[in-house]
Amino acid sequence: MEQIKIFLDEKDMPRKWYNLAADLPTAMLPPLTPDGQVVTPQMLEAVFPKNLIEQEMSTKRWIDIPPEVLEVLYQWRPSPLRRAVNLERYLKTPAKIYYKDESVSPAGSHKTNTSVAQAYYNKKFGVKSLTTETGAGQWGTALAYACHVFGLECKVFMVRVSFEQKPMRKIMMGLWGANCIASPSNETQAGRTILKSMPDTPGSLGIAISEAVEAAVTDKTGRTRYALGSVLNHVLLHQTIIGLEAQKQLKKVGIKNPDVIIGCAGGGSNFAGIAFPFTQEKINGAKIDIIPVESEACPKMTKGKFAYDHGDIAGMTPLLPMHTLGSQFVPPAIHAGGLRYHGMAPLVSQAIVEGLMRPTAVDQLHSYEAAIIWARTEGFVIAPESSNAVAQVIKEANKAKKEGKQKTILFNLSGHGLLDLVGYDKYLSGKLESSQVTSDEIKRSLERVQKVHVAPMRKTGKW
Ligand SMILES: Cc1ncc(COP(=O)(O)O)c(C=O)c1O
Q: Ligand 1 within 6 A of 343 CB?
């Protein structure tokens, strides 16, 4: 009988995070200010605590996980590695499909891996209160939980369309003592400006980030900071515990490296979490097809460009070298709210430029089709973001069948969908629509990307 659940003991949980910046063959381009200066640590101090800024800029390969963070992570980690044998049988594929199940965290997704670390470092630095944005609500709930654990206040700006689609998320945040507000809101200058020009906007992560950063930096007590749920180096770093655990678990069933690795990618942290430790193997010679999956409604990796761009709509963040659709881009209101971000993490973007990763995009209807197949084979109801990864897994498993190859596919199941049933209901009643953006819309948005500072495409040509 196949082993379908592979567990690790707490004592075998990784004690260090892995930093891909140490191994990328070309050094990362630095973030810039709008007038082209390289961003210094001091410039970020109004937004983040010093200890996290240090991590953000670090090129050290391994960074210790503090015991206080491990203590909290033990609550649900190591997360199980499971094998999707029912899906394999349904597809009649020779491929073995393994997945890390990140839905088992208190908030229901991978986001808790970094929220706990960020709340810990902020608390240690003397911060009293955190602000943040959230798309689908997963990150907001994860930060609400972590702030509760470390005794911090928490304010969450939730993208309006998700706020309306997923009211239960607000309740969950409230349960841990956080305050959740629909964005754009009247609480900030950025929100008021947007509401004036676009009163019916569904909102976007870019807008919500502007509001949350503004709320943090304008707090006169100086004891509020901002926390980001994806994109930045330190966030991706905290997620690498997923891939590091997966390496140990695969070893238990005799697998050193999978042939294919898949993760859905909004800002890139979920994908980086599973992929980066294996990307190190690829840099050192392993043959692995590493696939970040985005939504066709927000195709920055497959149709955007690599450029210096702001992480938010109001231009409050530094310019980051990344794949972007333009910081003014407001994607269609798909149910996978966590994939509605205009940019991709700089570390993932540089790995794509280098050729280490092969991005792809999935349409909303196909992702729901995949989620239904998953629920009817594997049983679990998954988050709409995760279903984009499953759609790609099914494609790769069918390809393996066609080629008659016994591949190992590994993917990250980023979260459960128990609070996302509205989208499922729409799909089952035939009301869910395919959701793509036209090339004209993308062209118009990209024309507004700032062009003063060019992000050179640097690659070694090895991959
Ligand atoms: C369940 C789930 N999966 C994936 C993502 C995308 O996350 P990331 O920004 O880490 O790529 C999100 C974002 O909110 C999410 O909630």
A: no
CB distance 205 to ligand 1 below 6 Å? no
The minimum-distance atom of ligand 1 relative to the CA of 264 is 4
In the chain the first and final C-alpha atoms are separated, in Å, by 38
The minimum-distance atom of ligand 1 relative to the CA of 383 is 1
Q: Are 104 and 386 in contact (CB under 8 A)?
A: no
The pTM of this model reads: 0.97
In whole angstroms, give the CA distance from residue 280 to residue 250: 16
What distance in Å separates the CA atoms of residue 422 and residue 164, rounded to the nearest whole number? 11
Picking from 254-263, 330-339, 416-425, which range would have the lowest pLDDT averaged per residue? 330-339
> Is the sign of the CA dihedral 39, 44, 50, 56 positive or negative?
negative
| Structure confidence by residue, pLDDT tens digits, 270-289 | 999 999 999 999 999 999 99
Q: Do domains 5-12+64-108+233-447 and 23-54+111-226 have the same CATH topology?
A: yes
264 lines ligand 1 (CB under 6 A): yes
Would you tell me how many other CB atoms lie within 10 Å of the CB of residue 189? 12
CB-side neighbour CA atoms (13 Å) of 357? 31
The torsion defined by the Cα of 415, 212, 32 and 19, in degrees rounded to 10, comes to: -30
Q: Is the CB of 108 under 6 A from ligand 1?
A: no
Q: Tell me which residue has its CA closest to atom 6 in ligand 1.
A: 266
Residue 417 Cβ inside 6 Å of ligand 1? The answer reads: no
Q: What is the pLDDT of residues 55-94, one digit of tens each?
A: 999 999 999 999 999 999 999 999 999 999 999 999 999 9
Which atom from ligand 1 is nearest to the alpha carbon of 384?
1
Q: Give the residue, out of 156, 209, 237, 264, with the most ligand 1 atoms within 8 A of its beta carbon, to mutate for a pocket test.
A: 264
CA angle, residues 310, 331, 243, in degrees to nearest 5: 70
Q: Is the pLDDT assigned to residue 164 strictly greater than 80?
A: yes
Distance CA 253, CA 251 (A): 5
Please state which architecture CATH assigns to domain 23-54+111-226: 3-Layer(aba) Sandwich (3.40)
Domain 5-12+64-108+233-447 has CATH 3.50.50.60: no
Which element (helix H / strand E) includes 82?
Answer: strand 81-83
CA angle 4, 141, 292 (to 5 degrees): 55
Any idea what DSSP says for residue 33? -
Tell me the sheet residues that pair with 324.
305, 343
Q: What is the CB neighbour count within 10 angstroms for residue 363? A: 18
> Domain extents for the chain?
5-12+64-108+233-447, 23-54+111-226
Of the candidates 302, 425, 402, 423, the one whose C-alpha atom is nearest the C-alpha of residue 352 is: 302
